[in-house]
Amino acid sequence: MNPDQTSAGPGGPEAPFDGGPGFPDDPAEGARRLQEFVMESPDVGLFLTELATMAASALSTQDNPVACGVTVLRERKPRVAASSDARAQSLDETQNGFGDGPCLTALRQESSVLVPELLGETRWPDYTRAAVQQGIRSILAVPLELAGEAEGVVNLYSGQPGGFLEEDVRTAANFVANASRSLRLALRMARLRDVRDDLMAAVQSRTAIDMAVGAIMAQNHCSQAEAFQILNRASNTRNVKLRDIASTVISSIGRKSNGGSSNGGSPNGGSPNGGPGTKTR
């Protein structure tokens, strides 16, 4: 895109295009803004939405608005995708549906892919036809460098043939390099949050199981090992997780303490089969 292109300011004459609202000209300021997004976004998905919006703003002009989609693949995690607008989301979903296209090629080859004119493109005929039908004429896909944290790609779409000039490719590459560093940080923070949540869930699960075992010991006058066997047998019989059976036992005790039925919340409903809530001696 021509750097001398202009965009109309709100309620005033045209002014030099500065990369869109909120996009800093200084690369260092752009990197700082991305770091702020990392700290302010509670999850990776919201950060990617900010990233897509910022990338689209960086490369858009009044005459050539650019849409952006970002896709990240993490091991043992669902695909995370975000977009600057509905059209970018639709284009990404269409490409994923076909299983091939410029963006997926950039992801697999770990190198940028520029398609200056879709009408002359023959590598992905099905996707190319669908993209043209949605008003897209040129695409630039730039892979994110995530150093083993995950795989990702930034997908840029223009409705103009030749919508991405050499300078735009350099701008996109620099933007994605800064974004990659910030995204690596966001992914690490997300992984730490997952570890924290898993540990908290494990502690809560262990606490519930211990409480349920104690209740069964008191009710059945049995040892801790025997009480755990009773709880585990009920879990296997009902095909219910051990912590969920434990929670049922604890809830049953709470209702009994409040004057409710002693059987309604127990896993075995007071039936004489040796499960929690039923005396075995």
Q: What composes the largest sheet?
A: 5 strands, antiparallel
How much of the sequence lies in strands comes to 5-15%
Structural class: alpha+beta
How far apart the termini lie comes to 83 Å
**Average pLDDT, to the nearest integer?**
76
Q: Kindly report the spatial arrangement of strands forming the biggest sheet.
A: 4-3-7-6-5
Order of helices and strands: EEHHEEHHEHEEHHH
Describe the structure.
- The protein is of the alpha+beta class.
- The chain folds into two domains: 18-188, Beta-Lactamase (2-Layer Sandwich), CATH 3.30.450; 202-281, no CATH class.
- The protein has eight helices and seven strands.
- It has helices spanning 27-40, 44-59, 86-98, 102-109, 125-133, 166-220, 224-238, 242-257; strands at residues 6-8, 14-16, 66-73, 80-83, 113-115, 138-144, 151-158.
- The chain has a five-stranded antiparallel beta sheet, sandwiched between helices. A two-stranded antiparallel ribbon has the order 1-2.
- β6 (138-144) and β7 form a beta hairpin.
- α3 runs antiparallel to α5.
- The longest helix has 55 residues, at 166-220.
- The radius of gyration is 28 Å and the shape is elongated.
- The termini are far apart.
Summarize the helices and strands and which ones pair or pack.
Layout: E1 6-8, E2 14-16, H1 27-40, H2 44-59, E3 66-73, E4 80-83, H3 86-98, H4 102-109, E5 113-115, H5 125-133, E6 138-144, E7 151-158, H6 166-220, H7 224-238, H8 242-257
Helix pairs in contact: 1-2, 1-6, 2-6, 3-5, 6-7, 6-8, 7-8
